[in-house]
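Hi Y.,

Following your request, here is the sequence exactly as I used it, all 153 residues.
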Amino acid sequence: MYKTSIILAMLMVVSAFTTLDAQNLNQIQRGQRGYSPPPLDREQGAISIENTVVQVDEKMELYAVEFELDAFEKAVMKNYLVDFETEKMAILENENVAYDIKEQSVLRLNENLREKLGTMLSEDELNRFAQLHFGPKQKKKKRKKKKNRDKTQ
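Below is the corresponding structure, written out as tokens. Let me know if you'd prefer a different format.
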């Protein structure tokens, strides 16, 4: 009986030391001594890149119905969108360019696409196209994909 109580007491002492060691009480914790890394600026965050060229076919059916496009106009619009999306992905994939420059380039691409589509669509239809292609649903989908990706990592 005496030996088992000594063994139990030794196990409790050893487990107490291991829990204290696991808590890093003898080391500097993150944020102590005045250092905690600064948060990234929202503008300087990472840009998510996804293959949006694949989605152009799905969207073209919606655009054809919405804007009453014939086969030729549909093909021309699809070419404009594929060119836009490939150029946008090429800009976003380049890691040697600063975020601000990427943002300006993408805005220029958006304006070029708007000018090209302005030859086919009226001003009201261009606004509707902007809502469908760049609207809040697209942003929600991106946020949802990003959350799912972050959860899996």
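The first helix runs from residue 2 to 22.

Thanks again,
Q.
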